[in-house]
Amino acid sequence: MLDHIGVQVSNYDTAKAFYTAALAPLGSKLIMEIPREHTGGAGVGGFGSDGKPAFWISDSKKRAAGSNDAHVAFSASSTEQVDAFHAAALAAGATCNGKPGPRPQYHPGYYGAFVTDADGNNVEAVFHGCTGPAA
C-alpha cells in the first residue's frame, strides 16, 4: 500500500547527518538526493535500503505556501491506476499538485500523480515500472 513517506525538516544538512547516523544500524542509508534545480532550491533526500528510498526529508523553509508537512505516496500497479487515483482524488475534493506523468528526475520508469488534500498534505500515487512512450 505505502510506497514512501516524507517529512519536512528545519535544516536539511543537519537532518541529513542525523538520519544518516540514526538509520545506519537499521541498514538504511541516503540513497538519493534530488538536484536543487528540480526542487526550487530545497534540500531533498531519500533514505532506504536495497536501492529504494522509502523515507524522505526536505527543507521546510522551501515549502510551498498552503502545503503541510506530510507527504505520503501510495503504490500503484500501473499507469492507469495512477491516472484513476488522480481523477478520483480531484473528484473527491483534492486539488492538483502534479498531473499524472513520468518523473524521470526521480528515476527511469517513475510515473506519478500528486494531489493536495483538504488539510494541505501532499498525496501521491506512483508506479515504478513505466516503460515505453510515457517513460
TrEMBL record:
Pfam families: Glyoxalase (PF00903)
InterPro entries in UniProt: Glyas_Bleomycin-R_OHBP_Dase, Glyas_Fos-R_dOase_dom, VOC_core
CDD domains: VOC_like (cd07262)
Protein origin, superkingdom: Eukaryota
Gene3D superfamilies reported for this sequence: 2,3-Dihydroxybiphenyl 1,2-Dioxygenase, domain 1 (3.10.180.10)
Domain called VOC: residue spans: 1-128
SUPFAM superfamilies: Glyoxalase/Bleomycin resistance protein/Dihydroxybiphenyl dioxygenase (SSF54593)
Name this protein carries in UniProt: VOC domain-containing protein
